[in-house]
Amino acid sequence: MTSITEEELKFTFKTGRARKFDEPGIPHPHGWRRVDFIVEEEEITVFIEVKDYAMEALKEKVIKKKVEKLAKHEFVDTQIVPKARDSYCFQYLMNKISKPVVYLVVIGLDKKYYDKTIFSVLKDNINKRLLQEAEKPWEKRYIKECFVLPYYELADIFPNYEVNRI
Q1: What does 52-91 look like in DSSP terms, one character per residue?
Q2: Among positive and negative, which fits the CA dihedral 26, 31, 32, 34?
Q3: Are 2 and 156 in contact (CB under 8 A)?
Q4: Contacts of 111 (CB under 8 A, 6+ apart)
């Protein structure tokens, strides 16, 4: 069992080998973005990106603006998809891709701000962009599946992963 903290969320992984991937101070190619965690499971590799919008320091007005940004292409194009692509490329070039990769975007957001429509649009935008970022679609599909969910629903999809606000 491994526990890793990101912002004000503590993740506990009961299975697999979990590690923090965007560790500060560890050199990586200039301009490349990295997902927060990588979990090596028996059958899949899970890339996890965490966006915590319910941090105690954030004011309600700021949280609402961040939630509105979720469904916008700029958020997907400049933050979410580049992290998946660059992390995949890094892992591939280090010869560490041997299983299908699942991308999990976990949003730290209180239930009162949860909007199922926004999450659905976000997931659709991510999936489209994962397939095509340039003029033509990628020849290789590098992410098998993508999940976008609030942190309190993580265990519904991944029962061996727990997350709690600290």
Answers
A1: E---TTS-HHHHHHHHHHHTSHHHIIIIIHHHHHHHHHHH
A2: positive
A3: no
A4: 150, 152
Q: Quickly tell me which residue has 């916008």 as its tokens.
A: 72
| pLDDT tens readout for residues 125-134 | 999 999 999 9
Give the start-end residues of each E strand in 7-160: 9-13, 17-20, 37-40, 45-52, 101-108, 145-150
- Span between the terminal Cα atoms of the chain, in Å: 18
Give the mean pLDDT of the chain.
91
| CB 86 within 8 Å of CB 34 | yes
Please give the model's pTM, rounded to 2 decimal places: 0.92
In this structure, the chain runs to a length of 166
